[in-house]
Amino acid sequence: MPELPEVDALVGFLHERAVGRAVVGASVAAISALKTFDPPLQELTGRTIDAASRHGKFVDLEVGGLRLVFHLARAGWLRWYDELPKTVIKPGKSPIALRMRLDDGSGFDLTEAGTKKSLAVYVVRDPAEVPGIARLGPDPTAPGFTLDDFAAILAGRRTQVKGLLRDQSIFAGVGNAYSDEILHNARMSPYALAAKLKTDDVERLYHALRDTLADAIDAAAGKRPDELKDSKRTRMQVHGRTGEPCPVCGDTVREVIFADSTFQYCPTCQTGGKPLADRVLSRLLK
């Protein structure tokens, strides 16, 4: 799943390649992906892309007074073409959900792999009309997001920090991969309760959150969409590295398996050497 740093890089790429170009065609191949009907998608044709921005994991293109907003979900991606293929996309026959053609012949497809379709596209007049954007919490990378703001959010919450970091209504843009990396950098158990964190724990987690995302944003900046996935994978210290040695201490990276996802961590760095049990079966091995 693309998270805040990758979405930020996609926005930067679209700013360079698409802003200033007019839309000459927009079509949907996966009807379920289009979540709005007024204004219709065809209203984008003939309008110029004026700006590209990000709200959490949502990409927002301002197109002649309208907004094309999309969320790539778990298995979605943006495929850019300097020369867009002229082949007609057929519903249900390819992973393409939406195709956008620009006036210089370039354009992009929004694609989604797998059978579980969650990619979402909206055509709206105001991004606040998108329910997911309206519910977003603060952007943890914003210059004005302070340690005091962070501490106030955590105070009194009897919620495990792993889930808290991933909750888009709490922090916009952080997903499974970067929450693993943030907690590893903070040397903190994913099962730690926010309300029980000491002052120095909160400060350490705040700086790990900010620094991890800032480093990832810097590393992703300037890359083409087709380079971002591999770039993200190579930067991970624990996420997706089950069974490999931790780059900090050398202990074996372990994982916890949920019904539809997994997370990784280092026992030595994060849990005092104690392995975490699968949450389906138990909480923390004593």
Lateral arrangement of strands in the main beta sheet: 1-6-7-5
Q: How many helix segments? A: 8
Q: List SSEs in N-to-C order.
A: HEEEEEEEEHHHHHHEEH
DSSP helix fraction: 25-40%
Domain module count: 2
Major sheet characteristics: 4 strands, antiparallel
N→C terminal distance: 33 Å
- The radius of gyration computed from the alpha-carbon positions, rounded to a whole number of angstroms, is 20 Å
Mean pLDDT: 94
The parts where pLDDT drops under 50 for at least 5 residues are: 281-286
- Which CATH first-tier class of the largest domain would you pick? Alpha Beta
CATH superfamily of the largest domain: MutM-like, N-terminal
Q: Work out the strand percent.
A: 15-25%
So, CATH architecture of the largest domain? Alpha-Beta Barrel
Structural class by sheet pairing and helices: alpha+beta
Q: Which fold name fills CATH's third level, the topology of the largest domain?
A: N-terminal domain of MutM-like DNA repair proteins
Q: What is the molecular shape?
A: elongated
Number of strands: 10
GO molecular function, one term: DNA-(apurinic or apyrimidinic site) endonuclease activity
GO biological process, one term: base-excision repair
InterPro entries: FPG_cat, FPG_N, H2TH_FPG, Ribosomal_uS13-like_H2TH, Znf_DNA_glyclase/AP_lyase, Znf_FPG/IleRS
Domain Formamidopyrimidine-DNA glycosylase catalytic: 2-107
